[in-house]
Amino acid sequence: MKKNWFVLGLGALLAFIGVGWTLQGLDVMKGSAMSGVTLWAVVGPIVAIAGLVVLGVGFARLRRVSR
User: Residue 17 in contact with residue 51, Cβ under 8 Å?
Assistant: First the structure.
């Protein structure tokens, strides 16, 4: 049961970081060496999508355990 919460936390963290990297890469969030760098505008959405996939797996496991 605790492993499911770890997976959910990891997925949320990845999604949050991915969105942050995307916004920095697109120069929406300024004030960092990552601001306006195309690499982060590409890597960010990939990390965010991976985080959403991990969240989906975590919720599916949580639902399966609770039944």
Answer: yes
pTM (two decimals): 0.87
DSSP notation for the chain: -HHHHHHHHHHHHHHHHHHHHHHHHTTSS-SSTTTT-HHHHHHHHHHHHHHHHHHHHHHHHHHHHH-
Count of CA atoms in the C-beta half-sphere (13 A) of 65 = 11
Cα–Cα dist 33/29, whole Å: 11
For 23-67, write each residue's pLDDT tens digit.
Answer: 999 999 988 898 999 999 999 999 999 999 999 999 998 888 766
